[in-house]
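Example for tutorial group B:
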């Protein structure tokens, strides 16, 4: 890998990095780009976008390699202003406790839990890093960004109740899902979910999978704290600065062109490593980079909306994140859910999502985003999806034609007495689903996230959506391992301090799970009964 040939601790560019952390962007460097009016600077790491992914990667690097300089460029004027904003997502700490799309039913009636276990394992990694960050003062006041909220799966109808029982049977014995309850008693349903019970006809069977250990996460507040830490430790933050182009130089460094969106001032930044964490905008920049690994990828934008409750009395009657079951043939993004939110230490309630469509790749993007992303190397992939994803097309058409009354009808599946005057429609974040090449199909639509990294490790980016922010830490660890394989070996000890279970499947190690769960619960103030103190450290023989 090219970086190892140049890298010495604190000396990526052959200068003392202690000073560079504060002044990296004040130093002029030679640039292969001819631009007489541009400010030319250098930095070890460029982060594109000030959302949860860039913030997580920057915070990790601050712990692992504090002598590297970091510059973050954000197109908007604030941190976490796109998908990481708390009202632009549902705030679910996705751990597959309640999301039925992670536990598909097999033809024989059993339930496949492999995907659920994998998602839960990833969330445990994020949770441990957040706990470590609190202990180290990187994060403060955990209740500002994470709060305990039960995660609940909800179905009605005899066949669906049978499925939920099979799901419970498959998950309840797994270490990661201990404590899950199966509930089909109307009286218990009414006790736990009063808002959902009012006006409900219980002659239609109901069933719940109830997990008390779920969380609601304000990813906006979390991102702001992480970005604040990067800034306090010498990272350079540029708001209202849009990265417009990327060019790799002969020595494997990158020349990054940046424009100040307020003044029009141009900036040219030379860097060893680029992470494109620009949400829906990542695809365009990865395409501009010219790396072969980005070829064939496309993006399909889907806008989202939620109904937000405006009646405090109703908000007080519901305290859970309740996920239903998507309609037959509908995509995973259509799973309806009624969510308790905790934002700014205040409870809230939202229902959705309702899908819309816009050619923009960001909520504050451009209408040319989609057509501008069509390239000779991905047009077949995108056309293939148009043919193969008729279910998605049908779903979007039905959503686009849905009236206010139709949205309330959907809400009444969860809250039968819901009235339109108690709810307002809000526009959520824009998600861009990944389109990837597939042999014999042209292209397939993927409902998840994908890390795209150059073979030489000099640039990486993240594409896709759910489970997204909840898996930010494992996703960024993947970036670090793929882009810095040599350095990663030296980081293992520190990583094990930060994430005690790293390299260990907690589903197969009940003792370690108990340790990290109790520790993280106490530090994150999620369980007042948690009895442990210091961070546990996995057996040093464990593989990382």
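The residue assignment follows.
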């Amino acid at each position: 890998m090219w970086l190892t040939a140049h890298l010495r601790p604190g000396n990526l560019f052959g200068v003392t990095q202690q000073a560079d952390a504060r002044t990296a962007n004040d130093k002029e460097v030679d640039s292969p780009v001819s631009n007489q009016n541009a400010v030319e600077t250098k930095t070890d790491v460029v982060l594109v976008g000030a959302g949860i992914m860039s913030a997580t990667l920057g915070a990790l690097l601050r712990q692992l390699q504090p002598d590297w300089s970091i510059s973050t460029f954000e197109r908007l004027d604030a941190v976490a202003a796109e998908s990481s904003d708390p009202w632009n997502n549902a705030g679910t700490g996705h751990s597959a406790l309640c999301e039925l799309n992670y536990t598909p039913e097999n033809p024989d009636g059993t339930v496949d839990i492999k995907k659920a276990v994998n998602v839960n394992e990833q969330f445990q990694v994020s949770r441990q890093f957040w706990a470590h960050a609190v202990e180290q003062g990187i994060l403060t006041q955990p209740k500002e960004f994470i709060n305990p909220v039960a995660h609940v799966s909800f179905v009605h109808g005899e066949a669906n109740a049978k499925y939920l029982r099979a799901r419970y049977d498959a998950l309840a014995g797994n270490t990661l899902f201990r404590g899950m309850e199966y509930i089909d008693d109307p009286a218990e349903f009414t006790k736990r979910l009063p808002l959902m019970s009012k006006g409900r006809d219980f002659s239609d069977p109901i069933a719940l999978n109830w997990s008390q250990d779920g969380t609601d996460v304000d990813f906006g507040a979390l991102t702001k704290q992480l970005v604040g830490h990067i800034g306090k430790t010498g990272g350079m933050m540029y708001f209202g600065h849009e990265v417009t182009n990327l060019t790799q130089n002969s020595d494997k460094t990158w020349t990054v062109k940046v424009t100040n969106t307020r003044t029009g001032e141009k900036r040219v930044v030379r860097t060893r490593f680029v992470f494109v964490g620009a949400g829906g905008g990542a695809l365009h920049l990865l395409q501009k980079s010219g790396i072969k690994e980005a070829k064939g990828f496309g993006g399909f934008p889907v806008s989202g909306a939620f109904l937000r409750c405006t009646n405090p009395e109703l908000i007080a009657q519901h305290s859970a994140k309740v996920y239903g079951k998507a309609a037959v043939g509908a995509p995973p993004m259509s799973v309806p859910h009624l969510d308790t939110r905790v934002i700014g230490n205040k409870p809230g309630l939202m229902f959705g999502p309702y899908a819309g469509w816009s050619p923009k790749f960001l909520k504050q993007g451009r209408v040319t985003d989609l057509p501008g992303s069509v390239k000779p190397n991905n047009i077949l992939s995108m056309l293939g999806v148009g043919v193969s994803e008729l279910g998605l097309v049908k779903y979007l058409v039905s959503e686009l034609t849905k009236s206010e009354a139709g949205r309330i009808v959907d809400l009444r599946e969860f809250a039968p007495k819901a009235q339109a005057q108690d709810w307002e429609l809000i526009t959520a974040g824009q998600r861009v689903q990944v389109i990837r090449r597939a042999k014999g199909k042209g292209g397939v639509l993927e409902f998840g996230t994908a890390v795209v990294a150059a073979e030489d490790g000099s640039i990486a980016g993240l594409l896709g959506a759910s489970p997204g922010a909840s898996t930010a830490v494992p996703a960024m660890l993947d970036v670090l391992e793929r882009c810095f394989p040599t350095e990663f070996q030296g980081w293992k000890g520190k990583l094990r301090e930060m994430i005690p279970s790293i390299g260990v499947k907690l589903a197969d190690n009940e003792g370690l799970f108990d340790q990290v769960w109790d520790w993280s619960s106490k530090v994150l103030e999620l369980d007042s009964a948690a009895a442990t103190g210091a961070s546990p450290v996995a057996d040093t023989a464990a593989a990382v």
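The radius of gyration is 24 Å. Compare this with the pattern of hydrophobic and polar residues in the output above.
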